[in-house]
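Sample A.
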Amino acid sequence: MIFATGIAFLTSEYPLQERGRVLGIAVAAVYIGLSCGPFFGGWLTQHFSLISSVKITFIIFACPCLIGNFFSLYRGNLRSR
């Protein structure tokens, strides 16, 4: 569901001349992640622990989202003044 939504978003945002390149990059990123994910997850589990993969995932994804939300809210408060 998410992949189909992402493809629909990309096709609506990019002009016809750039769609092939953009869709190729999106599909390549998905399959690189699917190929590398088990390798890095296994490496983290073997060398550290199972919880390390959860902590790394949190750092990589949740922290930037939280920081981005904070700055977007802060910037919105400055505009309203």
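Sample B.
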Amino acid sequence: MLGAIAKRLGEAGRAQPFLRDAVGLPDAAAVFAHIKATVASLARDASRARFEALGVRVIAAAGRFTGHDQVTAGGFLVESRRFVIATGSVRRAVDTGIELVRSLTPDTVFELSEMPDDW
């Protein structure tokens, strides 16, 4: 029981920088700034340059499986027991009706300085 209480107090202590008052209401600006900084640091760690510096061959090409343990892409034949397929993604804005509602994107949500009333 004391261990569980200590764990909860530790969790509460880590949350302190993100609270705006003793009641425990979140400081949205602090929360969003922390998330934005975390996402930025992860993006640096997942860059093509970083993987290549670690000795990973990054093949930016369409590929196809040619066997249960083979992939052909960009003129390379890769044989392995396991593969990581990182396709990436691109956001697409809705082009009809979006002006009728408030919308947030992964880029704009972290620019908020307070929690929206409807959250």
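B remarks: The helical segments are 2-15, 28-45, 48-53. The beta strands are 63-67, 70-73, 76-79.
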